[in-house]
Structures are given as C-alpha cells and as structure tokens.
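TL;DR need structure tokens for one chain.
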Amino acid sequence: MAHARAAEQPAEVPAWSLPAAARERISLPATWPERVTREWALGESTGKGVRVCVLDSGVDADHPLVGELEGAVVVTVGEDGATEVVEDTQGDVSGHGTACSGILRTLAPDCRLFSVRVLGAGAIGSGPVLLAGLRWAVESGFDIVNMSLSTTKRDFAPTLHDLADQAYFRRTMLVASAHNMPVESYPWRFASVLSVGSHGGTDPLEYYYNPDPPVEFFARGLDIEVAWAGGGTVRSSGNSFATPHLAGICALVLAKHPELTPFQLKSVLYLTAANVGDAA
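>> reply
TL;DR here they are.
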C-alpha cells in the first residue's frame, strides 16, 4: 500500500526538465524550407549588421582591404600579472590579424568588424592573455568570434572549454582554426566551436563538410593573397586563412537568418556544403 500511495503523488520535475504547462511556451515555427539551399542560406547577403570579433594580432584599420573597424581593444598584463582589456591605439603588430580581417571584409563587406589583440609580434601570445581576450569577447556578445589561433598548453584547455561552452549557449559562434601541424591544440578541438581546416580550391565561398572529425569543415586556405599590415598584401597559406573564409560565410548566413543558434548554423553549413547532397 505504501508503494501505491507513493505512486499517486504528483511526480516532481527534475532540474533542467520541461513541465507540461511549459510546452506551449517553447513551441517554435518551422520556417526552414523543405530543402535548404545556398540561395536560401546566404543568397544576396552582405553580412549587414553581423558583429564579428577578430581575436588576433590587432588590425590595421587604415588598410584598404579592411575598411572601417567598429572598435579595437588589447589585453595588457600588469606587473602583478593581472590582465586588463584597454583601448588599442597601436593596431596590428604582426600582420596576421589584418590578413584575417581583409578576408572577412571581402566575403561579408557589411559586417561590423571589431579587433581584440591577444597576439604580439610574430603572432605569438600567452595563455592568460588569450583567455582574457576570449572571455571579454564572449561577454561582449559578438555574433561571431574568428580565432585563427590555438594553444598547445593543456593547462589552459579546461578554461577554454568552459568559455567555448559559454559562447555556444550565448549564441556566439566561435570559428577556430585547426593547428597547421598534427598536434593537439585548443579550442578548435571542442565540439561547441566551428573548427576549420584548409582546402586548395580558389572559390572563396566553397567549403566542405568533413565526415572524419575532429575538423568539421574545410575552407579556402592555400596560396591566397591576403592583406598585411602597412597597406600591402602577401601570398600565404594556412588554416588561419581558411577560418575567416568560413567565418565570413557564417556572417552572410546570420545576416539573413539572425535567429539561428550555433547548432542551427552548423546544420545550415552542413546542408549547403559542396560535398553534401545536391551540392555534391
């Protein structure tokens, strides 16, 4: 009888669960077409209004291939080792961030670019500075954060993983480059980010889904003429330059479909990749 009485009691809803009365509150309209095409996903988009953060070596805002920056900050380290985010008046100290920004601007000319400098000369940085810059970017609520960088230091992986998850739940898409060498590095290894490797094609809008993780997508990244600090260009290759290609494509999609979550955005990219379905 004790068991019978217990069964008659209304069951408590576990934490993170959905009460019956709340089902209607989370109902969503089905607005996707029966077949998701590139035209639906990004056709005629210029990336207008999408806020893109370039977490890198700074950006040369005077470069003709970059155009207007919405703002720029740099992570500094005090004598006590504490990090601080302040206005960046120096710009690009390496050229790497300008290269990534030029690619982004070319693909999504009307996106809103912002620079967060976490790398120094030679595109070299430290873990604490990277973490502080990424934390600031996530808390600032950018739509996309381009991360053409990574760290091999495992000590920083747990915090990077936590920040990547925070970004995912805040609807900020972290687009991160795989390492150019076959080594373990972060944050591109995390499932909550969009990880990018290179392909050798010439079409900046051509990208492929990778059915063999951990890299999720391949974008143009080999033998590319890119903007560089000082107003000129250089020819270079690397996953660093594939990443802003895919980040720019993300900006095109989000400008047309700002309601998409990172999960949905990844799904759209998969369905419109050059090697998937009708596009293959």
